[in-house]
Amino acid sequence: MAPAPRMSAKDLVGPVAIFFGTLLLVSAIALPLYFTDTLKKTPMDLDLTSVAVSQPQQGVSGNNDQPAKIFNSCSVNQPRAEVSDARLTQQQRVIVVDPADADIATFQAGNSIRIDSYTSGGETITPSAVGGKGACMTSLLTATRDLVTTNRETAQPQISGGGQSEVKVDASDNSVSLPDRTGLQYRFPFDVEKSDKYQYFDLTTRTTNPLTYVDDSTEIHGVKTLHFTQEVPEVDLSTLVDANDQQMPNTSLDQTSGWYGGFPGYRNNDKLPASLMQSSTRDLYVDPASGTILNEQQHIRQSYKLNVSDDSPKEMLDYRLTALDVVFSYDQATQEALASDAKSLSDPITLWGRWIPIVIGIIGVFLLAVGIWLLLGSGGRSKPAVAADGPSDPDEQAYPPRYAEPRHDDHQYAAPRHEEPRYPEPTHDEHQYEQPYDPDQTRQIPVIKDDGDGFTDWSPPRRS
Prior knowledge:
Blueprint: H1 9-35, E1 47-54, E2 68-71, E3 83-97, E4 104-120, E5 123-125, E6 140-151, E7 165-168, E8 176-177, E9 199-202, E10 207-210, E11 212-215, E12 219-220, E13 223-224, E14 226-236, E15 252-256, H2 257-260, E16 271-286, E17 293-306, H3 314-317, E18 321-330, H4 332-377, E19 447-450, E20 456-459
Antiparallel strand pairs: 1-3, 1-18, 2-3, 2-18, 3-4, 4-5, 4-6, 6-7, 7-8, 9-10, 11-14, 12-13, 14-16, 15-16, 16-17, 17-18, 19-20
Helix pairs in contact: 1-4
């Protein structure tokens, strides 16, 4: 049986191209499904710093340099309450701390509101950071430290299994536990949708409220954002407690009627308690790819409301002493930095989830097409070359040589026929005859010549 013909390098090009083309097509499908999922998690090195400044608002303050309103706590010891114009700055830094692993990340956020300046009695005052002896106001208006453990994929709180949820609200090292916290905070998950399904946690009121999708028309430093808005209903902050289960500081007043401005039917020295109420409106501008919040505009409204019965005079029921009225918005430097962070998170996802699969998919289709064309265009595997002295059909066998060994099925082998040596024909010179060469010269017969003169001569024969 003849051996199977070998495939040449040309024969292998088509199958190899099909193999690699198929491999690249499978990779193009698998990369977005599996590899990019590992990138769509809260980064472990997250470190976000934001600075928000008070913005002018119509009808709140006539001074654009000091567009906010704050309660002047120095007026507690004065005959009348005083509300001052002020310029405020809100700062926040968010980092990832333990516990954190492949599934969870814990945010630690430091939040503060600082008084840059305020007016009192027609004078602009820049408060000290630490305050002096007898100082009634410092530059620090509020400060909190928040800890919350979240799922790295959904960005939702994950308190069970060792997670944390607590807030520090005073100068002590004690924190208030918030085990029932729900809703997003500080960031969104990757691939944010145009939907009303998201909820957001408000730290000051400790409540979770729904977000409403508005539009996608705002672009911040080259990043197109999704706009969400939230209304936080009014909450009595005096009902919240600190780490010692005590009422939060500065959330209630107990002043005389005259100090508030006076009310019909009440004497000026009658004591009237009041509680601090807060409501707010929050607008978030979110990068849909990375879930990074590029800008937050928050209108905070705090005021003291008298604790009186429902049958009290309308003037008392409607009375509000402004404690804080401000609209905060991230400054330009913060928005630019956050846009850069968002791109650094979303660009690898776009690269590995879109462009690289497209490129390798195109290459895969090209290789697959080339491989199929080579196979079909050549009509299958080419026939092996045939030797010049061999049979034209590889399945045919050449006749065995004359002295070849007998085949296994031959019972006899005929010896080749013996042929007598052939002597050369005589030449035209009939007087000469040359015998064939004989290596044994002792057996050669000399040639005798007769020249006609009666003498004879001999000479050895010539070799042919």
